[in-house]
Amino acid sequence: MAVLTAAALGVVGFLGYQAAATAPDHPTQARPGSHSAESKKKDKGDAGAKKKSTALPARSGTGVRVVYALGEKRVWLVGADGKAGRTFEVGPSPASPAPGTYSVTSRNKGGVGSDGVQVEHVVVFHSEGGVVFGFSAAVDGSMPDPNARKRTGAVRESRADGTAMWEFAQLDTKVVVVP
Fold it and tell me: Where is there biased composition of kind Basic and acidic residues (predicted)?
């Protein structure tokens, strides 16, 4: 009887862990690569789910550049041929830069972000009103809380995307922010 009780508790614990990790009301706690029911609908192309476009936005500049679309929460790394070599979703913080053209002003291999999280591959492109805007990857894989009270300008990427940004966006690389 004790063996059956232990087995039942193990199954219940495992199912509880799975439910907590993918609960839609805890998006910041979801593990990288885990999918909520809503994102699975989008992946399958359900009629009710709107699929995000990965096409480079119109009027996003020319030449080598990073394009950051605020509304789409997406970045494109655009080469000299005008084509995006890579695009990926990002997690913005509560503050966003105004649409416009900026350039990479500094880079830092690692440190602590303005939200207190250990980050790597920091690429800064703008500063305004005490808020520093830049791309980075959290070492623990977390994304910033868009509803946080502290105004930070972190634009978080996955670690793989952060590495790609680090390799692409050198000092003075153009960064175009679109709505």
Answer: 37-49
